[in-house]
Amino acid sequence: MLAIERLSKQFGGVKAVQHVDLDVRQNEILGLIGPNGSGKSTIVNLVTGVFPPTEGRVRFKDGDITGWPPHRVLAAGVGRTFQSIRLFGGLTVWQNLWVAQNAQSEGGRGVLRRWLAVDRASMTKIEATLEFCRLLDKKDELASNLAFGDQRRLELARTLAAEPDLLLLDEPAAGMNAAEIEDLRERLLALKRRGKTIVLIEHHMELVMTVAERVAVLNFGQKIAEGRPAAVQDDERVREAYLGQRR
Amino acid sequence: MSDYVVSLLVRIGVEAFVALSAYLLLVIGRISFGQQAFFVIGGYAAGISTALYGAPLPIGIIVGALAAGLAAALFAGAMARAGGIYFAAGSLARGELARVALLSFHHQVPVGADLTGPAGADGFRGIRALFTSGMSVTAYMVAIWGLLALTFLAIALLLRSRWGEAIRMVGEDETAAAAVGVRVGRVAGLTMVGAGALAGMGGGLFAHYATYLEPGHADVMLGVHSLAYAFIGGLGTPLGPIIGVAFDIGLLESFRFLAGYRMIIFGGLVMALLVLRPRGLLDEVTVHRVTRRLAGRRA
């Protein structure tokens, strides 16, 4: 579904990502792990057009989306969340979803109406998404007034509102407690049942190892391992990356 | 109504356009010290079209707004992606550029027995379309406020639409806005053009009231004040900047008996307000609370 080929990004002298190849298959949950600074978020930013790659290609559904601006990448069907929560605090919960909603269908009939007012169809969809993320009762709260766990869920809801086929989730469990992580696990599996494809960047190993079919490991901007979770866990290079070299 | 009150209301009405202009830029997260550039561009363009080429007053006002919008488009083309301090510095430079350019702008044509038109540092005299049209100053003041009310309504409706939502998203976090599908450059650019046209409209209205414009009307203090208006009145609603102008000018005028001390008192009040209400009297939280209460009463 998503094919990353020899993707590289250099910031000045820093090689944040070096010749990474990665294939994401339709309807799978792929775990993308690695120590801090290994280039995971950079890959998300490269795929979603926050900045262009220095080298390499990004293909999505047989089309080349390398260097596309963010709104086109989203319209093509790739949504993302942010590692540090980036909500629109001055907007209410449902308003945070409003613009993302319809992001795939610019133009056509009824554009003006959709842009100027809240139509019933949009609102029904927004409410369904909020319900799925357990935020419906907080619909009219300002995003900045939400508790931390709710803010994380709103990030996910906002991305889902654009109805992407592929979700790039950048540490969705960061800062969550055990119950919230359990809830997130359920959401992820439910999304998979709905046909979504997910790339899950996460430090919470237990979550990754239990939901991901495959795991890719980055270290210093390079892919050092890829495979089933159990196999990757036993990989010598992965252990070195996380624990240091055995003496 | 006394002439003094009318003149005060004209001043508040006219400056409210510039305040709304600065406010729109604040909504997209940009601080501009240079909206006075569009104010004078609009004023000169409106004055030239009526005084030199005989356009009727309403057409002149529209020409002024369009000219300022065009100037804003040129600036936006260069600065739409710049943010923070870079945008602020660029806008300051733009304001000064307009002022200095007008110092050497001569375009005089014979109208009747006299030469009329911009004459560099000597200014632009004889913008008399209002007085030759026979409209009273009081009626003109009412027309300004009518136009202001329409503008306010248009902006309030816009900000409640999905478009407005996109505009506010750009102001809060451009990266996140792009990630939910907002075309940041386009939204920011169009907002800047609209804001420029608004300031230009204010300029055209002012030019025909004063009958005289000079490069000094592009003084940086107008840009600074229009920012302050938005911050005093509040960033949660376009009513904020309008209240800000009325508060600012009304207060300054009512302190006249304090003579030289009035600026000290006034400055102190503004500072106190910024400490107590950093996003103005009508900030987003207050507006949200009020609209919720009103919505609740209706339900």
Give a structural overview.
The complex is a heterodimer of chains A (247) and B (299). Chain A is an alpha/beta fold and 247 residues long. Chain A has a domain at 2-92 and 164-243: 3-Layer(aba) Sandwich (Rossmann fold). Chain A contains ten helices and ten strands. Chain A has helices spanning 40-47, 70-76, 93-98, 111-116, 120-132, 148-161, 178-193, 205-211, 229-233, 236-243; strands at residues 2-11, 14-24, 29-33, 55-60, 63-64, 78-80, 166-170, 197-201, 214-219, 222-227. In chain A, strands 6-7-8-3-9-10 form a six-stranded mixed sheet, with helices on both faces. A four-stranded antiparallel sheet of chain A has the order 2-1-4-5, covered by helices on one side. The longest helix of chain A is centred in the C-terminal third of the chain and has 16 residues, at 178-193. The model of chain A has no long low-confidence stretch (mean pLDDT 90). Chain B is mainly α. Chain B has one domain. Chain B contains 13 helices and four strands. In chain B, strands 1-2-3-4 form a four-stranded antiparallel sheet. The termini of chain B are far apart. The model of chain B has no long low-confidence stretch (mean pLDDT 90). The chains are: A alpha/beta (247), B mainly alpha (299). The A-B interface holds A 48-50, 69-71, 74-75, 79-80, 82, 86-92, 95, 98-100, 103, 114-118, 140, 142, 158-159, 161-162 and B 157, 161-163, 165-166, 168-169, 172-173, 175-183, 284-285, 288, 292.
